[in-house]
Design a protein that fits this description.
The chain has about 100 residues and is α+β, with helices and mostly antiparallel strands. The protein contains three helices and four strands, in the order ββαβαβα. The model has no long low-confidence stretch (mean pLDDT about 85).
């Protein structure tokens, strides 16, 4: 969404055209237990994440993207998921255009 900018990022925002959702939507409570498969499918559908299409996960520094990759590829069975192991830090350093989806 571009709501929280990492201190080392050159710009706020997210990749234009990307689909965003808070990480805590994928888990229950503070223990990090994943939601059940029907709930995860419903979250992805409501957010407009393609079911079996090519998807690239990313985040500010690279670590949350791995959780999204795991949920989409291993729990939901999409073989077309890839993870951008760089991050928005890399993209903003390269002056990649950013989009602000939410402005506060």
């Amino acid at each position: 969404m571009g709501l929280n900018k990492h201190p080392k990022a050159k710009a706020s925002g997210t990749i234009p055209g990307s689909i965003n959702f808070p990480q805590d939507w994928l888990t229950l409570g503070e223990k990090g237990t994943f939601r059940d498969i029907p709930a995860l499918k419903q979250i992805m559908k409501r957010q407009g994440v393609p079911d079996q299409s090519n998807v690239i996960t990313f985040c500010n520094k690279g670590h949350w993207a791995s959780i999204d990759w795991f949920v989409l590829s291993k729990l939901l069975g999409n073989p077309n998921v890839r993870m951008y192991d760089g991050s928005l830090l890399d993209l903003t350093a390269a002056d990649f255009p950013m989009e602000l989806k939410v402005k506060i």
